[in-house]
Design goal:
Elements (H helix, E strand, L loop, with lengths): L40 E3 L2 E3 L5 E2 L2 E4 L19 H11 L3 E7 L25 H14 L3 E8 L16 H14 L6 E5 L27 H15 L4 E4 L46 E3 L2 E3 L18 H14 L6 E2 L1 E3 L5 H14 L7 E4 L22 H7 L31 E11 L2 E10 L8 E5 L5 E6 L2 E5 L2 E5 L12 E9 L6 E5 L2 E2 L2
Parallel strand pairs: 4-5, 4-13, 5-6, 6-7, 7-8, 8-9, 10-12, 11-13
Antiparallel strand pairs: 1-2, 2-3, 14-15, 15-20, 16-19, 16-21, 17-20, 18-19, 21-22
Helix pairs in contact: 3-4
Catalytic activity: Endohydrolysis of (1->4)-beta-D-glucosidic linkages in cellulose, lichenin and cereal beta-D-glucans
Enzyme class: hydrolase
Pfam families: CBM_2, Cellulase
Length: about 525
């Protein structure tokens, strides 16, 4: 999991409202509206699609493939993997950033901690085969995927893009393999080359990632050019996402040397792009570069700027200096790859509100992928709660006005890998829904909803409906029934994940409020009559 470290002059001793849901209508066109059509490219500070329409990526991170599990966390839960992606899309996240480590790409790598009773289709699949299936399904939701080389090994992050056991050649060759694997699949739009390059060592004995220093062993800008151009040689249609460093020198300042010339402005790991204007990343294919800073709150580390007397009014100028100027001066697009907080500190809530305001509203705003979907991110928590089903409505309410929901989808797509092992899941089927009220009392009622699948077989199945404000779920049976805002989700139980064509499922429930039939009933995204 990412650890975002401060690298300021004082960090030499640092060791490393209510849930608003967006209903998504599944349209036949490929990547219409929300994430555009075809492959993406850049134009000034904008990301545009193959037709020239502006696209804003408003996504989320789902981590785990970079850890010892070598696959997505939460696959151990009772919520099927497709249902989790359904929720992300329904909430308005149009892009999925997927962290991985090179360990997960090795021949013989094995994924673990998967609840195969809930996810039987993942049984005995390799990490890459699971990735294939997730990418395929993401495409059906109209979402896009950014792959993120998060760690060289599952043991942890590294200041540089290579380590004694994972060479630069391995880093680049694995990227080329992934580019070839997903060639022709427009769901996968690009490569986040290396997660959070950062300073190491104390100046003048810096050993960490610098920007523009000219040392080929440490200059992250030059390494990003080498890797980015190698990827574009295989897949010229991908966007290349380049993060910043923490200190441009690559080392922490020695605050005890009384030499102010050695001091510099430092920021979060991966968050400092202050030298990118002077030393830009030069790629062999034009209009492919996106800068991708990280930005965090006090739940990660209490930076000095949170204590300024004019906080939060001081923050826009700080963001301008680290990375926002690239967008404001029309140099390149910004896609904020990670930002998040537990929101337990009131300072953090203000931070998130002001940061989102800074990115701008509507399609012309800066792109972002929130950290994270996972509730088990130790220093930020997630959008999902600990059951991996319900959501953190406080966070979602702040993000919601800035989300541009995915529309449409590609349908099942090939991975481009003859040995990828990807399987095409059944498409959402048409359905009918019948509701029966079985009981009522003062302040509540009981009912049953029977949904018949009139399309192809589904595994797993998931039924969603809406109630008006004031009607709340009491209990449910024959499914895992949960509510967020006015939307109710009934996920397939572990003992009956499949729903064959022509078969029905009856979901029982009690509810509080005025007796109201379920409305806008959908089965795996298809609207029921």
């Amino acid at each position: 999991m990412s650890r975002r470290a401060l690298a300021s002059a004082l960090a030499a001793a640092f060791t490393a409202a209510a849930g608003i849901l967006v209903a998504i209508v599944i349209a036949p066109s490929a990547h219409a509206a929300g994430t555009g059509t075809g492959y993406l490219r850049t134009s000034g500070n904008k990301i545009i699609d193959s037709t020239g329409a502006t696209v804003r990526l408003t996504g989320i991170n789902w981590f785990g493939m970079e850890t010892d599990n070598k696959t997505f966390h939460g696959l151990w839960s009772s919520n099927p993997w497709r249902s989790q992606l359904d929720t992300m899309a329904r909430l308005g996240y149009n892009t999925l950033r997927i962290p991985y480590s090179n360990d997960a790409l090795k021949p013989g790598a094995a994924a673990n901690s998967i609840n195969t009773a809930v996810n039987p289709d993942l049984l005995n699949l390799s990490p890459l085969q699971i990735l294939d299936k997730v990418i395929e399904y993401v495409g059906t939701k109209g979402m896009r995927v950014i792959l993120d080389r998060h760690r060289p090994t599952s043991a942890g992050q590294s200041a540089l893009w290579y380590t004694p056991t994972v060479s630069e050649a391995t880093w680049i060759n694995d990227w080329k393999m992934l580019a070839q694997r997903y060639a022709g699949n427009t769901t996968v739009i690009g490569a986040d080359l290396h997660n959070e390059p950062h300073a190491d060592g104390t100046n003048p004995n810096a050993t960490g990632a610098c920007w523009g220093c000219g040392d080929t062993n440490r200059d992250w800008r030059l390494a990003a050019e080498r890797a980015g151009n190698a990827i574009l040689g295989v897949q010229p249609n991908w966007l290349i996402f380049v993060e910043g460093v923490s200190c441009p020198s690559g080392g922490l300042s020695n605050v005890w040397d009384n030499d102010p010339s050695n001091d510099e402005s430092c920021g979060w790991w991966g968050g400092n792009l202050s030298k990118a204007g002077q030393f830009p990343v030069r790629l062999s294919v034009a209009n492919r570069l996106v800068y991708s800073p990280h930005e965090y709150a006090t739940s990660v580390y209490h930076q000095d700027w949170f204590d300024e007397p004019n906080y939060p009014a001081n923050m826009p100028a700080l963001w301008d200096g680290f990375w926002g100027y690239l967008y404001k001066q029309n140099i390149a697009p910004i896609m904020m790859g990670e930002f998040g907080s537990t929101l337990t500190n009131p300072i953090d809530k203000v931070w998130l509100q002001e940061l989102m305001k800074y990115t701008g509203t509507g399609v012309n705003g800066m792109s972002f992928t929130y950290w994270s979907w996972n509730p088990n991110s130790g220093d930020t928590g997630g959008i999902a709660l600990d059951d991996w089903t319900n959501i953190n409505t406080e966070k979602q309410a702040i993000l919601q006005p800035y989300l541009i929901a995915p529309v449409g989808g590609t349908g099942p797509t090939a991975t481009g890998s003859p040995t990828g092992g990807a399987t095409t899941g059944p498409p959402p089927g048409a359905c009918t829904a019948t509701y029966t009220q079985t009981n009522a009392w003062s302040g509540g009622f009981q009912g049953s909803l029977t949904v018949t699948n009139t399309g192809g077989a589904l595994n797993p199945w998931s039924v969603v409906w809406t109630w008006p404000s004031g009607v709340t779920l009491g209990s449910g049976w024959n499914a895992t029934v949960t509510q967020s805002g006015t939307t109710v989700t009934a996920a397939a139980p572990t003992w009956s994940p499949s729903l064959a064509g022509g078969s029905s499922v009856t979901i029982g429930f009690t509810a509080n409020g005025s007796a109201t039939p379920p409305a806008a009933v959908r089965l795996n995204g298809a609207t029921c009559s």
